[in-house]
């Protein structure tokens, strides 16, 4: 198999279209056409990880955090990022990052965190905006079912827990073709009034090319009439963070102990105790200060996240317990999830979980 042959599997786990605009995901280093020798899965693609990949004969490193986040103007080895890129190139190793593509997936980073803590009844905390579009098209009744099914097969019509969703209405369409036309119904220069079915379907924006290809391939008309709209609806199954609840409420101190036990959090920074039990919990793996107001609006008793700054804790205002467990700790099971996913999908190829602990934060 070539390195590029693994990309569809990785995209099934973490579609690159789900990533945030600021992020840098996908193939960051290497030649996708090279034959793959093995896959090493890690949290951060540091120098020690590249050395491990060389030793274990893996020429594809799949990492959670992208080693190249902003642009590189030079690659001279003066810092840890440049040294990783140089070493990877010198050893013909490809690096592929998933980051917020997996953060935004409903089964990704935050579901993993919820499962680790034993939270149930989970749902997305911050649903993704500007991700849904609507296609409106018109066809004759005898073409409607075939066209509708083709659009469904292309990924249109999926809404939450439902698929094959559409709205259909009947009306009268009019047209008159010129000397270059070849109308399916009527003749050139004839004013035609024809019964038509209006079909409306929504789709995720990254599927637009595939949906349009299905539209044109399965429509009867010489000139396909269609409209595409961007919708303001949030996507309830894609987004950052997650809300869940404990089956039995915990005291705040019991919550801290669970966070230590389950996440290996050696030090938990938190806002003032409210002396109230914790039932509903919002989680956001990684830097999550932006989610504080979302957690409050969702009625969370606590928010488990990382990288909170001094003034962020003031936002608690005795309405929520803010828990900063550490960036790495909040994502600690992510590389295991990636490796397990790949092992289930690829049963005849070497998938290796990195032994490197890449957490840069130490506690005294």
Automatic annotation (TrEMBL):
InterPro entries: DUF34/NIF3, DUF34/NIF3_bac, DUF34/NIF3_sf, N-reg_PII/ATP_PRibTrfase_C. GO terms for molecular function: metal ion binding. GO terms for cellular component: cytoplasm. A divalent metal cation binds at residues 65, 103, 327, 331. Keywords: Metal-binding. PANTHER family: GTP CYCLOHYDROLASE 1 TYPE 2 HOMOLOG, NGG1 INTERACTING FACTOR 3. Homohexamer. This is GTP cyclohydrolase 1 type 2 homolog. It comes from Flavobacterium caeni.
């Amino acid at each position: 198999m070539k390195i590029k042959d693994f990309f569809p599997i990785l995209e099934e786990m973490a579609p690159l279209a789900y990533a945030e605009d600021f992020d840098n995901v996908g193939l960051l280093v290497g030649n996708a056409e090279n034959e793959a020798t093995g896959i090493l899965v890690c949290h951060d693609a540091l120098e020690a990880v590249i050395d491990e990949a060389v030793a274990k004969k893996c020429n594809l490193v799949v990492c959670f955090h992208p080693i190249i986040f902003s642009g590189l103007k030079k690659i001279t080895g003066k810092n840890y990022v440049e040294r990783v890129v140089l070493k990877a190139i010198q050893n013909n190793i490809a690096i592929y990052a998933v980051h917020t593509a997996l953060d935004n997936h409903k089964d990704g980073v935050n579901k993993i965190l919820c499962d680790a803590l034993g939270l149930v009844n989970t749902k997305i905390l911050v649903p993704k905006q500007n991700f849904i579009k609507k296609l409106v098209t018109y066809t004759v009744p005898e073409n409607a079912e075939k066209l509708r099914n083709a659009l469904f097969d292309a990924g249109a019509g999926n809404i939450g827990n439902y698929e094959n969703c559409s709205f259909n209405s009947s009306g009268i369409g009019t047209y008159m073709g010129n000397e270059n036309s070849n109308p399916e119904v009527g003749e050139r220069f004839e004013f035609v009034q024809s019964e038509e079915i209006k079909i409306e379907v929504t789709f995720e924006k990254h599927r637009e090319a595939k949906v349009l290809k299905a539209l044109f391939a399965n429509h009867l008309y010489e000139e396909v009439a269609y409209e595409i709209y961007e919708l303001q609806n949030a996507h309830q199954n894609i987004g950052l963070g997650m809300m869940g609840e404990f089956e039995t409420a915990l005291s705040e101190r019991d919550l801290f102990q669970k966070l230590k036990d389950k996440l290996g959090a050696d030090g938990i920074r938190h806002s003032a105790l409210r002396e109230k039990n914790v039932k509903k919990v919002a989680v956001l793996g990684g830097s999550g200060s932006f989610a504080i107001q979302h957690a409050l609006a969702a009625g969370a008793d606590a928010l488990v996240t990382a990288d909170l700054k001094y003034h962020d804790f003031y936002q608690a205002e005795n309405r929520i317990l803010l828990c900063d467990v550490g960036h790495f700790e909040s994502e600690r099971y992510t590389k295991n999830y990636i490796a397990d996913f790949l092992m289930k999908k690829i049963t005849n190829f070497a998938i290796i979980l990195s032994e490197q602990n890449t957490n840069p934060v130490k506690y005294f």
